Amino acid sequence: MDLGPIAQLVERPAHNRLVPGSNPGGPTILKMSLFIKDAVGRLEDLIPLNFQEEWDNSGYQIKLANAALSGIVTSLDLTDKSADLAVSKGFNLILIHHPLFFRPLSSINLDSNDGKLVGRLIENKICVYAMHTNFDSSAYSMSRYILNKLEIKEIFPLIPNKRKLYKLSVFIPKGYINAVRDVLFKYGNPKIGNYENCSFETKGKGSFKPLEGSNPFIGESLKTTFTDESKLEILIEEKFIKKAIDEMKAVHPYEEAAFDLYPLYDFGGNKTEGMGAVGNFESKIALGDLLSKMQRLFSPIFINYCGNLNKKIKKVAAVSGSGFSYIDSAVKSGCDALISSELTHSKAIKANKSGICLIEMSHFDTEKYFTSITKDILSKEFDTEVIENIYENNPFFKYKGGEL
Question: What pLDDT band is residue 265 in, cutting at 50, 70 and 90?
Answer without folding.
Answer: low
